[in-house]
């Protein structure tokens, strides 16, 4: 077809009964929203996480390694330190369940991390 940009497909790595591909947009974005700059609540939460981590004198890798997650493939894994760093910068807003896991890994009440939001 003239002018056709081509159709893009997202292939799942999970076993399936169907062999059909799922059409997706060529401009599909990752499922995690990213911000060019932090909004006030995300920045305040990130600052509280960073402060709690630094009080414990721990690295991003050490804290992230204690936070269990479920990967896109459905397998259990650990939080990536880069994602935790993005949360600290306010570039990502974690779900409430992820925020609770971060608080648990830092051994602080979740209320302390969200106070003043």
TL;DR?
With 117 residues, the chain is α+β, with helices and mostly antiparallel strands.
What proportion strand? 5-15%
Total DSSP helices: 5
Radius of gyration: 18 Å
Secondary-structure element pattern, one letter each: EEHHEEHHH
The total beta strand count reads: 4
> What is the class of the domain at 40-112 in the CATH system?
Mainly Alpha
Topology:
Blueprint: E1 8-10, E2 22-24, H1 40-55, H2 60-64, E3 68-70, E4 76-78, H3 81-89, H4 96-106, H5 110-114
Antiparallel strand pairs: 1-2, 3-4
Write out key terms for the chains shown.
117 residues, alpha+beta, 434 Repressor (Amino-terminal Domain), two-stranded antiparallel ribbon, 5 helices, 4 strands, 39% helix
Describe the structure.
This protein starts with 7 loop residues before the first strand and ends with a helix. Helix 1 (40-55) packs across helix 3 (81-89). The chain is α+β, with helices and mostly antiparallel strands and 117 residues long. It has a domain at 40-112: lambda repressor-like DNA-binding domains (434 Repressor (Amino-terminal Domain), Orthogonal Bundle), CATH 1.10.260. Helices cover 39% and strands 10% of the residues. It has five helices and four strands. A two-stranded antiparallel ribbon has the order 1-2. A two-stranded antiparallel sheet has the order 3-4.
């Amino acid at each position: 077809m003239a002018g056709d940009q081509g159709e893009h497909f997202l292939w799942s790595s999970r076993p399936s009964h169907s062999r059909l591909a799922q059409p997706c947009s060529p401009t599909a974005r990752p499922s995690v929203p990213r911000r060019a700059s932090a909004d006030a609540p995300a920045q305040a939460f990130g600052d509280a996480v960073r402060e709690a981590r630094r009080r414990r004198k721990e690295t991003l890798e050490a804290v992230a390694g204690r936070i269990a997650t479920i990967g896109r493939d459905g397998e259990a894994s650990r939080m990536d330190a880069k994602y935790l760093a993005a949360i600290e910068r306010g570039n990502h807003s974690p779900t409430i369940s992820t925020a609770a896991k971060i608080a648990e890994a830092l051994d602080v009440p979740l209320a302390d991390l969200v106070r003043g939001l």
